[in-house]
């Protein structure tokens, strides 16, 4: 049944909804729930080789790639080991959902230029505190994401047995 009082969204807002719904952390949210994040999405432009953040930096924002490519890497001795090259529609810096965390990898733009949406942690927390149902949906998506990461680690470990001590992953609980 048609509800004449239901909020209607314009074409620009619909584009945001379509974009955000492709991001794992936001895929379970309704348009009304996604609308709460839009005012806090700041578009930032980066140039090639510009660092978005370094490992050890405070986790103060979630990043979503609108355009371009970003390399995620970890520090290994005097160099870096690439974890992933991610492109449009992917997010990174997801440990910003946890208060008081630091970045565990580096993020650097590798395309000629990139456009990234930045959602500050303080605004994310404000939404999650005021809307526990949104927090539940995002945390469920994060659990699915980390389950996939763990599955990938085990799969890789089985195919390259012995390159690291798998028990150390679980023995170092805080």
From TrEMBL:
One Pfam family hit: cNMP_binding
Residues annotated as signal peptide: none
Xref: Gene3D superfamilies: Jelly Rolls (2.60.120.10)
Positions of the Cyclic nucleotide-binding domain: 25-145
InterPro entries: cNMP-bd_dom, cNMP-bd_dom_sf, RmlC-like_jellyroll
SMART domains to which the protein is assigned, alphabetical: cNMP
Coiled coil (residue ranges): none
Cross-referenced PANTHER family: CYCLIC NUCLEOTIDE-BINDING DOMAIN CONTAINING PROTEIN (PTHR23011:SF28)
Protein name per the record: Cyclic nucleotide-binding domain-containing protein
Species name: Reichenbachiella agariperforans
Lineage summary: Bacteria, Pseudomonadati, Bacteroidota, Cytophagia, Cytophagales
């Amino acid at each position: 049944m048609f509800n004449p009082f239901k909020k209607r969204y314009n074409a620009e807002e619909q584009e945001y909804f379509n974009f955000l719904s492709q991001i794992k952390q936001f895929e379970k949210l309704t348009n009304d729930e996604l609308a709460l994040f839009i005012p806090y999405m700041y578009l930032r432009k980066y140039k090639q080789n510009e660092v978005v953040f370094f490992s050890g930096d405070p986790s103060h924002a979630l990043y979503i790639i609108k355009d371009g490519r970003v390399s995620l890497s970890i520090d290994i001795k005097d160099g870096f080991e690439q974890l992933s090259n991610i492109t449009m529609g992917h997010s990174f810096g997801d440990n910003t959902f946890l208060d008081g965390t630091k970045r565990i990898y580096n993020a650097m733009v590798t395309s000629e230029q990139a456009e990234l949406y930045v959602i500050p942690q303080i605004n994310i927390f404000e939404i999650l505190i005021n809307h526990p149902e949104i927090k539940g949906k995002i945390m469920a998506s994060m659990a699915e994401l980390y389950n996939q990461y763990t599955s990938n680690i085990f799969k890789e470990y089985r195919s390259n047995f012995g390159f690291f001590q798998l028990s150390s992953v679980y023995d170092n609980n805080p």
